[in-house]
Amino acid sequence: MRTETPQTIRLEDYRPSDHLIDRVDLDLRLSPHDTRVTATLAIRPNPAGEAGAPLVLDGDELILLGLECDGQALPADAFAATPSGLTLHRPPRRPFTLRIETQIDPTANTKLMGLYRSNGVYCTQCEADGFRRITYFLDRPDVLSVYTTRIEAGRDEAPVLLGNGNPGACGVIADTDRHYAVWHDPHPKPAYLFALVGGRLDRVATRFTTMEGRDVAVAVYVEPGKGPRADYALDAVVRSMGWDETACGRPYDLDVFNVVAVSDFNMGAMENKGLNIFNDKYVLADPETATDTDYANIEAVIAHEYFHNWSGNRVTCRDWFQLCLKEGLTVFRDQEFSSDMRSRAVHRIGEVRTLRARQFSEDAGPLAHPVRPRAYAEINNFYTATVYEKGAEIVRMIRTLLGPAAFRAGMDRYFAENDGRAATVEDFLAAFAAESGRDLSAFAGWYERPGTPRVTAAGIYDADARRYTLSLRQSLPSGDGAPLVIPVALGLVGASGPIEAACPRVPDGVFVLEATSDTLTFEGVAEPPVPSLFRGFSAPVRVEMNLGDAERLTLLRHDTDPFNRWQAAQSVAMRLILDRAGARLVEADEAGPAAEAYAAALGAFLDAEALADPAFAALVLALPSEGEAANEIGRDVDPDAVHRARQTLRRHLGRSLRGRLESLREALAQAAGAPFSPDAASAGRRALINTALDLIAMADPEAGTRAAEAQLSAASNMTDRLAALAILAQIPGKARETALAAFGERYADEPLVLDKWFALQATIPEAGTLDRIARLRSHPAFAMTNPNRVRALIGSFGLGNPTQFARADGAGFALLAETVEALDRVNPQIAAKLLTTFGSWRMLEPARSSKAGEILSRMQARPSLSRDVADILARTLA
Ligand code: 0A1
Ligand code: ZN
């Protein structure tokens, strides 16, 4: 490996390609160490490019075996080839055919980019720039080609051969043990959407008839024996296909749609045209091995990849700066799908928790970047929460601003105008502007400005005039620049319920804050109101308003907006945690009146509503995470103080609500019943049962241990079993060690379940966790070559164990750093991702942050870092 001088690629330097490739004929002869790829490319000069320019094809670790132009071998001085590129100095100035033969070694490919083998299955990952690891190519998203792929392999090794598009000829190769299959994809696509699979796989299948009457064969392929665990994913595919038609008018466009699950995969899944390839974590599920969260994630990721068929594949991105164009939009689409399949309010709260945990912290640290970055050194480092999650919030804001009808018309126009093209954010906004007649140029600031905006609100009530005046002021961390266009969904709430009051500037409950500050006046307000701001989290901002706990608890009781009811309880809890953490109280066990009032309000809420909506109640009971509290504090953070403060509040809640929590557990257990069903209502009941047990165990660890042990042995599903184990894992002692060991043995052959077990142990907030991780690293199921294992054991430690990762002696940072360095030689992409756990290091109190700084600087001095890691390191230390 070499340290590459990171070359910065800039949006402003974009130029169309000098050449286009209309057709690609690929012939791949699969073999474990010596795969031969012959690419026949129909190339022509691009009228929009520079005439007579050399043809510069990308490559990465390729061996060139043969090269012909229009059937003729090229003289040595006509081209230059290296593993990372092939240049024709003077290509024909007319259409021509280039035939390139390359050799690759899929077994040696531990980067999991390009063609590799996962548990013996050949598969590919080409986004963002993996196709160049298969053959020399114009590996950029604005070069769209029609692909025909012939795949040949040993019949025994790879009885299943899959490609993009529709299946064509197939057969055996006479006098050999090999066979082949041809696939043709009629839809022009960029190289990053190319895929193939070859291996021993089981298949579960069904059919779907589209709104246009196309009969589609839908199948999910998994490793042998895992077929029964693919049923839920298959069902999710069919529901996604139906939803995209009814909710968005988008039908499927090929005769087959295939999903393949593999066990080694860098990300969640990939939307290759007609052949989605998945991390098996997002396909395989049964009640014995998958939790309710797993089921929900599978549904969401299946939908996400399927929806890319329109938002990403039919309309793709002109360049990688436009990544949010497909990712933000597709996340928005999968969120809407999940909301329609489940509880909208509960789902929205989940989305916002994720956004705050991942994106707000990214946006507050050294890795902050605009939703549309302007420069990058390594594009694989930009598959971030900002591009995905904040990108989705931007689309949501467009819908809030325009209303559902104009939004739908804008989407239809965007798809119609850009079908078969590589588009930009400007094309996207233009479609909405055209349909709504609105000028969205100021709104476009959301794509350009990094950092989470802050909106400060203040209200004055004039009882005599029955008037309420609300002022709002926005500010961005990046200071200067024009104000953003911020949709503020809002309403007023009084002591006994919602207040109807007139304010012409809030049509349909949405005010658009366009200036740095503005003031709204509500007339006819008969009682002192509490404003309910940013209902449904109408914009990705931090809201500051000087409300008292009593006012917030009024919102919890009476707001019509479920999101803000939840938010109200969160805000009270956050203040209680911060007060305690700020005082750095070591023995802060006594509750105090504010905590009493909070617990009393939650008690009343549970009495009135918990049985009617257990999923929502579980969310209201869950306190903000330690990470969220740390972000809120923002500087000089002592993770131990935050941890203690939060634990104290949990213990207090458990003690105050104990009787109620026990009766709720009983009532819900009866309702939960058998057999297991992963539907949202059943999952909601389980969520509340387990949240209740968690609080009971905080209040009374002995009783909690007994109840958790009982649940662990009686559980009929992984959700209840894992929840019980998680509670035991937090309570030091013999019961914990016995339970962990038994679980580890029971699932010794289930890597996805062991991941949960790894993660649970890695997040125990105790000094012994480092030794535990060291032992688990030599567990037979752990492997540095498998991204899921690394994420489960090491990633969870970095992200989910703030007191131990940021230990004052630096040992937690050192563990992470060592893993990053070792992993960088195997899989730089995952190493770089792991390194992002250092993103908040400057926020820590000086002793801890200087330890982190030292360790990062030492890593930077190493001679042979990958571009991926060097890029994250440079930005983290900047
Ligand atoms: N487009 C995929 C994400 C993805 C990106 C890069 C990958 O390469 C390692 C893999 C997947 C999605 O949004 O699902
Ligand atoms: Zn995506």
UniProtKB/TrEMBL annotation:
One of its GO terms (molecular function) is metallopeptidase activity. Its cofactor is Zn(2+). CDD domains: M1_APN. GO terms for biological process: proteolysis. The keyword Metal-binding applies. The keyword Hydrolase applies. Residues 451-545 form the Peptidase M1 alanyl aminopeptidase Ig-like fold domain. Residues 97-193 form the Aminopeptidase N-like N-terminal domain. Gene3D superfamilies: 2.60.40.1840, 3.30.2010.30, Neutral Protease Domain 2, Peptidase M1, alanyl aminopeptidase, C-terminal domain, tricorn interacting facor f3 domain. Its EC number is 3.4.11.2. It catalyses: Release of an N-terminal amino acid, Xaa-|-Yaa- from a peptide, amide or arylamide. Xaa is preferably Ala, but may be most amino acids including Pro (slow action). When a terminal hydrophobic residue is followed by a prolyl residue, the two may be released as an intact Xaa-Pro dipeptide. Residues 549-878 form the Peptidase M1 alanyl aminopeptidase C-terminal domain. Residues 232-444 form the Peptidase M1 membrane alanine aminopeptidase domain. Keywords: Aminopeptidase, Hydrolase, Metal-binding, Metalloprotease, Protease, Zinc. PANTHER family: PUROMYCIN-SENSITIVE AMINOPEPTIDASE. Belongs to the peptidase M1 family. This is Aminopeptidase N.
